[in-house]
Structure formats: C-alpha cells, structure tokens
Amino acid sequence: QSVLQGIILLPLRAVCITFILLLAWLSASIATFCQPGRGFLPLRGWRRRMIQTTLSSLTRTAFFVMGFQVKVKGKVASLAEAPIFVAAPHSSFFDAIICALTGMPSIVSRAENLSTPVFGTILRSLQPVAVSRQDPDSRKNTVAEITRRALSRGQWPQVI
C-alpha cells in the first residue's frame, strides 16, 4: 500500500511544486519589472509587500507539499530589533524555510546564483548581497554592503 501511495504522491507533489515554483517566478518577475534602481535601491511599497507576502506564502506551501510542517516557537525579531539574521550552517535548501518564516529577508548569495533560470529571478527579487568568488575584494565588499543595509534604518529589509 505504501508503494502505491508513493507512486501516486510523488508525481502529484512534483506537479504541485512545479506549479508553485512557476507562481513564485511570476510574482518575482512582476515585483521586479521596471524596478527603479535595479537592485541598488531597496524595493518599496507594493513591490516589497508582494515579495514578502506572496513568496513567503508560496515557499511555505511548497514545503508543506513536500511534507514539512514547521512550527515556530516564540516571535520573529523585527527589523528594528535585528537588522541581520544569522542562519547556520547554511548548506541546504532548508534555509528557504527560514526565509519564508521571517518574511523573505535579503540574503547573501553567490553571484552565480543570480543567473540561474527561474531561481535567479526569484533570488533577485529578494535583493541579495551577491558574493563573487572571483573578486579578491568580495569579502570586504560583502561586509560593507551588509553593514550599509543594517544601518539603513529600515530602508532595506533584514539580511540573513
């Protein structure tokens, strides 16, 4: 019986996750279409709210479809309380759960990830701090950018 459930559930889950991923890509594309500042200025107004609500909900739904049920104990720190989140060890796709639960903050990511089809568009909508492994000054520039965003008095979203 469990084999039969797997045969039915696996393709159904794959279709649902693909649909959710395409909705997330569409939402990210709409929110960043003709974006002023093209990543150098923070998203504001409806664009930021769309990213926070839509992508957060879709990410939570995708993890639910995959079989994860996450329960939050306590309260997520606000931007004023914690302009920077630290998630460690960030070595898997489970970091997306943290992003969804914290309202889709900006993240620190490899610059190469921004050119990935579909995922790159979604990632760019989070306005990441891009780290280039080829640039010898990248570490210093990354620290400077994270500091600049953390000290922006709420203009930029939290950074994880």
UniProtKB/TrEMBL annotation:
Its main location: membrane. It holds the Pfam family Acyltransferase. One of its GO terms (biological process) is lipid metabolic process. The keyword Transmembrane applies. The chain crosses the membrane at residues 12-34. It is found in: Membrane. Residues 70-156 form the Phospholipid/glycerol acyltransferase domain. GO terms for molecular function: 1-acylglycerophosphocholine O-acyltransferase activity; lysophosphatidic acid acyltransferase activity. Keywords: Acyltransferase, Lipid metabolism, Membrane, Transferase, Transmembrane, Transmembrane helix. One of its GO terms (cellular component) is membrane. Belongs to the 1-acyl-sn-glycerol-3-phosphate acyltransferase family. This is PCAT2 acyltransferase.
